[in-house]
Structure formats: structure tokens, C-alpha cells
Design brief:
The structure is a single chain. This protein is about 60% helix and about 0% strand. It contains 4 helices and no strands. Helix 1 runs antiparallel to helix 4 and helix 2 crosses helix 3. The longest helix has 14 residues, at about 5-20. The protein is globular, with a radius of gyration of 12 Å.
Length: about 80
């Protein structure tokens, strides 16, 4: 992941799953991170298959569910 920690990724994924919303601007405001960090988080979530690529209107669907969040929590705890 580009310049992001597993904990930051987990926070972003948890927020996206809870709110069923994922955009750079949303993550930037909610997590209080830079636009570049939010961009890296969105890119990483898209590459991992947790969110969809943007549609024609630029919106993304959250594909991940609570199970994906729990799985990631376990991976981080084991590391």
C-alpha cells in the first residue's frame, strides 16, 4: 500500500463499510487526512476489490462487508 499503514487502511475500510460510501473527499473529511492520503486509501481499496471503480458519475460502490473488515482486523492482529 502506498504510504499508508494497515491501521489507516482498516479505519478507512471500516468507515466505508459502515457508511456504505467511499470517495476521496469523504475520507479526507472523516479521517482528517490529506487529499493525497485519501487518494492512496481509495486506490488501495479499489485494488483490493473492496470498492468498485468509479461509475459514469464518479461514484463508487462499497463491495466489502463486515466480514472483510473482521478479516483485515485479524490479519493486522496476527502481524
Amino acid at each position: 500500500m502506498r504510504d499508508i499503514t494497515p491501521e489507516e487502511y482498516l479505519r478507512a475500510l471500516r468507515l466505508a463499510v459502515e457508511r456504505r460510501r467511499a470517495s476521496k473527499h469523504f475520507l479526507q473529511r472523516q479521517l482528517r487526512v490529506s487529499f493525497q492520503k485519501a487518494d492512496a486509501l481509495i486506490y488501495a481499496m479499489e485494488q483490493a476489490g473492496h470498492i468498485s471503480p468509479p461509475n459514469a458519475k464518479g461514484r463508487r460502490a462499497v463491495i466489502a462487508d463486515d466480514g472483510a473488515v473482521a478479516e483485515l482486523e485479524e490479519e493486522i492482529a496476527a502481524a
